[in-house]
Design goal:
UDP-N-acetylmuramoyl-L-alanine:D-glutamate ligase; 16 helices
Length: 425
């Protein structure tokens, strides 16, 4: 989300100390709704502190309005005062890059000024995340490149009952920078779902279960020949005919060396059939959530969550693949034993279809030439950063997976800038 305005934006507010004190006495819910517990603990019986914090919140909201950003709730704006320093405003628990506030009291009023410097980006990487980002890799984006330079992602996903999974995976691949995206989906009498016009869509007749069936396999050979990466699994369903289709497709992949991201029902089908599990090509990026990981390892979700890094490392070793164990603090494990934990944790990503977007995003990075482990780590970071920035800009609930996909464009650019800034001059 790039600032539509280039110059600084200023917000000013004046709050009456007596008026805020009366509001708190008459309407206790006002304090609970608009101030954090930490702010209440600091302010206590000091009405000028309550009024000062209220003025800062109003001034910050005026800055957001001036920038054209969605206004954060009052309680999401927290005024903190580190020892020996002036006040700072946090929005959804984080500082806003380029935002400064000042606060004073005089003649029974609190006066707050908030200024946001031009050229900043809402959601720019904070220092702690920028430090993590510098250990990642991204594929180059040469100015004279063409769409063929950035590879083709083929998405094999969906079911007549779950048409959106393939759409979101394809959208993740587009937003991840793939040069071309082709989606192969099963369709019934109702026809295909609505894909972005940039997606090359190929439909196959759905089997009796509404999903893929072995009859679709011969037509996939040409798709695989044109691909630089394959995104497989979201929304497939778990019918026996789909398991047979998956087995045939994994056999087609054998020896091709085509980078593969395997997710969702693709993993569930493999967990239910040891032969399918053994057929997963080495070097695949597998992206289970905790329940899928439990099925793959034959243990409870509680045991998986209690030792997330160990679970990811174990499955990675078994499959000789990269494993992405999703969730707050996503774990990425490689078959060489390397394990990393992504620093992001946001409820914005806890929404249906978010994982499908990540599948397409990682596939796009693979198609552009990144090795599997690098693509997984960068994709997880970009996905998490998209969620973090959306939370900062709009809130913690109600965001859509398609909006996460759209925000991946800015998140990848922020990561790219952090990497460029870290290069020796």
């Amino acid at each position: 989300m790039t600032d539509p305005l280039q110059g600084p934006v200023t917000g000013v507010d004046v709050a009456s100390v007596d008026r805020i004190a009366r509001a708190l006495r008459r309407h206790p819910a006002f304090g609970r709704r608009c101030f954090t517990a930490a702010e209440a603990a600091v302010s206590r019986d000091r009405p000028e502190r309550w009024a000062g914090r209220w003025a800062v919140k109003e001034a910050v909201r005026k800055v957001y309005g001036g920038r054209g950003w969605a206004l954060p709730p009052y309680r999401a704006i927290e005024v903190v005062r580190p020892p020996g320093r002036g006040p700072r405003a946090l929005v959804f628990g984080e500082p806003v890059p380029g935002l400064a506030v000042s606060l004073t009291h005089d003649a029974g009023v609190a006066i707050a000024v908030a200024v946001h410097c031009g050229g900043g980006r809402l959601g720019a990487l904070p220092p702690a995340l920028a430090q993590t980002a510098r250990a990642l890799r991204l594929p180059p984006r040469a100015a004279d490149a063409h769409k063929g330079s950035f590879g083709t992602v083929v998405v094999v996903a969906g079911h007549t009952a779950f048409p959106g999974a393939a759409v979101l995976s394809a959208l993740g691949a587009l937003r991840g920078g793939a040069g071309k995206v082709r989606a192969v989906v099963p369709v019934g009498p109702g026809g295909p779902s609505h894909f972005p016009p940039e997606v090359m869509l190929r439909t196959v007749a759905a089997g009796s279960s509404g999903g893929f069936a072995p009859a679709a396999l011969p037509g996939l050979v040409g798709d695989l020949d044109s691909a630089q990466a394959l995104a497989l699994g979201p929304g497939l369903g778990q019918a026996a005919e789909t398991a047979a289709f998956l087995g045939g497709l994994l056999e087609l992949l054998g020896g091709r060396g085509l980078p593969l991201v395997l997710d969702a029902d693709g993993l569930n089908l493999c967990a239910a059939d040891p032969q399918l599990l053994r057929a997963i090509p080495p070097g695949t990026v597998c992206t289970p959530h905790p329940a899928e990981m439990g099925r793959l390892l034959g243990r409870s979700v509680a045991l998986v969550q209690g030792a997330r890094a160990d679970a990811a490392r174990e499955l990675s070793s078994r499959l000789r693949s990269v494993v992405v164990l999703k969730g707050a603090g996503t774990v990425v494990a490689g078959p060489d034993g390397a394990v990393s934990v992504d620093p992001h944790a946001t409820s914005v990503l806890a929404t249906g279809g978010s994982g499908d977007v990540l599948t397409g995003l990682i596939a796009a990075l693979l198609a552009q030439g990144l090795p599997a482990h690098d693509a997984a780590r960068a994709g997880v970071f970009i996905h998490g950063e998209a969620g973090r920035a959306l939370q900062q800009a709009r809130g913690r609930a109600g965001l859509l997976a398609s909006e996460v996909a759209d925000r991946c464009v800015d998140a990848q650019e922020e990561l790219r800038r952090a990497l460029e800034a870290a290069r020796p001059s």
